[in-house]
Amino acid sequence: MKSAFTFRALRHDEWADFEARTKYIPGRQFGGIVACKDGEPVGAVGLDNWSGRTVSVHWWIRHPRCIPALWAELLSYLRQYDYAHLIGTIPSDNVRSLRGALRLGWKELARIKDGWAVGTDIVILEYHNGEQLEAAR
Q1: Are strands 107-117 and 85-91 parallel, antiparallel or unpaired?
Q2: pTM (two decimals)
């Protein structure tokens, strides 16, 4: 079945908007994938801190229905270049994002107590980009 979404590269002129929406400040290695519906961006995944076979992942989602298709597109793209490990951080009070990440197969590695703010930990997550896309569907 064909996806209802189209995908394109995140453009440099969109970095400021990504930062405003996610509070993540892109570094020199930053890039990403944008999911569009009817030509309008509905979500994006930003990639930064590329090292060996690992990359940091940051999400901006306007319409949650794009997540499965964007996730599958991301995993497929990273497999082409042998990136096997994805790292993410989520504030512990962002329960919806944590629940969604765990449903996609991310595993919690650690927490930094009060790392985001007093009373809000930074949750460090990892995803092993294996051979199957079933978890993304």
Answers
A1: unpaired
A2: 0.86
Burial environment of residue 110 by CB neighbours within 10 A (0 to 12, 13 to 18, 19 or more):
exposed
Token digits of residue 108: 């919690």
**Tokens 């007093």, located at residue:** 118
Under a CB-based contact definition with an 8 Å cutoff, are residues 90 and 73 in contact?
Answer: no
3, HSE (Cβ side, Cα atoms, 13 Å): 16
Q: Which domain holds residue 95?
A: 6-136
How many domains in the chain?
1
pLDDT digits (tens, 9 = 90+) for 104-122: 999 999 999 999 999 999 9
Distant-in-sequence, close-in-space partners of 51: CB < 8 Å, separation ≥ 6: none
pLDDT digits (tens, 9 = 90+) for 13-59: 999 999 999 989 999 999 999 999 999 999 999 999 999 889 999 99
91 found inside a domain: yes
The enclosing domain of 84 has a CATH number of 3.40.630.30
Q: Is 48 within a domain? A: yes
